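Here is one chain, start to finish.
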Amino acid sequence: MYTSLVTPACARAGPASRSGKKLYITSIPYAVNKAQLVEQIGDVVLSRKMPHLIDVKELSTDDVRIELELRGRADENL
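Its structure:
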């Protein structure tokens, strides 16, 4: 069973490519576990609950950077 939790985060749109658009999450609250967040988003991708979401990647080094890949026709402002 999935529960819904809304947390404040900072995100910005990345460059669009042939495969689709990219959205980068650059900041999450201190209490949120980044690995669990990426895992939960991955579960949503696999279950196809959000049809415009294709893939999620963790690109973090020292700072937070999570890449969400969207379909080309998806609106990144949602």
